[in-house]
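Lab notebook, bench 4. The sequencing result for the construct came back, and we need a structural model before the next group meeting so we can plan mutations. Quick request posted to the team channel:

Model the 3D structure of this chain.
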Amino acid sequence: MTTIPDLLDFDPDAALALLGEWMTARGEPSYRATQVFGRLWQRPVRHFDEMTELPKALREALAQSFRISSLELATRQKSMDGTEKFLFRLHDGQFIETVAIPDGDRLTFCISSQAGCALQCAFCATGAMGFQRNLHPSEIAGQVRELRMLTPPIVPTNIVFMGMGEPLMNWKAVSPTLTLLNDPRALGIGARHITISTVGVLPGIVALAARPEQFRLAISIHAPSDALRHTLMPINTKYPLADVIEAARAFDRRVTFEYVMLGGVNDQPEHAAQLAQLARDCRAFVNLIPLHPGGSMGFTPSTSATIAAFARAVRARGVETAVRRSRGLDIAAACGQLRTERLGRRLPVATEQHGEVHVA
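Done. Here's the predicted structure in C-alpha cell form:
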C-alpha cells in the first residue's frame, strides 16, 4: 500500500521540489508550489480546502495526493507564572508534551523529539515511562506549527529540544526539523535561538557540528564524575564523561552544561570543584537547574541556599554560571509528568525493535 506523503515531513527544498514536479505534471504554473508551501508553515492551515487562493479543483487534487497532518491538543494548562504546557495526542494514540515559557521579551518553546525516552536517567519522569517511538519532522516542528494556529497564535522567539526524548537518537528526523525551524521560508527562527540538548550522544554531536548553521548545543552533565554519572545516567557506560567533554571541546560553538541539582547527591562542594574543572576544559557555560518536584522520581531538590553556594563555588573557579528559575510549579510542568498523568505507565518498546531509531 502506497502511503500518501505528508508535506510537513519534508524540508523546504524537498517539499518545493515535490510540489513543483506534481504541479508540472498537472500543467499548473510553477508558482502554485510556492503558494501551497507558504500555507504549511508561514501562514499555516489544517486542510487544503482552507487554501482559498487556489482553485477548488486544485485543492481537491492536492488532498488526493498529499497530507497535511495535525496534532490533537488534548490538554492545555497555564501556570501562575505564565508558563503554558500542552499535551498533544498523535495519530497512533501516543502523547507528547510542549512547554511555552515566557521570559521578558522572549518566548521559549521546549519541544519533544520522541514519545518517551530510552535513556532512563534516574531523576527523569520521561525516562521512567520508557521509549515508545521516534517522532517525525511533522510531529516535532508540528508542535511549533500547532501553537501558531491557536487563537491568538503563540509564536516563539527561541526553541529548545529539552522536552521528551533524546534528540540526537532521532537525528534522521531532527536534522530536517532544524531546517524547518530555521529556514525563512518555513518557521524562520534564528539558528542561535535554537538549542539541541543531549546527554552526550557523540555521533550526533559530530553531525550537529557539521551543519553550517549556528545551532546551540547543551549537554546534560548532571554529575561531574563517571562514578556518580553511572548511577544517574546509564548512557554514561556508552559515552563516558571524558569522551563527552572532548566532543564539547571540539564543538566550534560555545556549549552549555545542564546540571540538575539533586539534594545530597550531586550538590556538594567537591562536586562544584569537579564541575568547574570540566567546564573550564571546554569553555562551557554552566546552567544549574533546580529539580522540579513534580517529576523528581524520589529525589529531593537541593535547597536554595545549597544551590546558591554551589553556584558561587563554580563561579569562583572562573566559570560563568546561571541558576535557572523553576517554572510551572503549580502545573504538571516536569517533563513527562502530564503525559504520565494522562496515560499512566505504558510498557516501553526496546529501541532495537524500533526501526526508526537513527543515531547520526
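The two ends are 29 Å apart (CA to CA).
Will bring this to the meeting.
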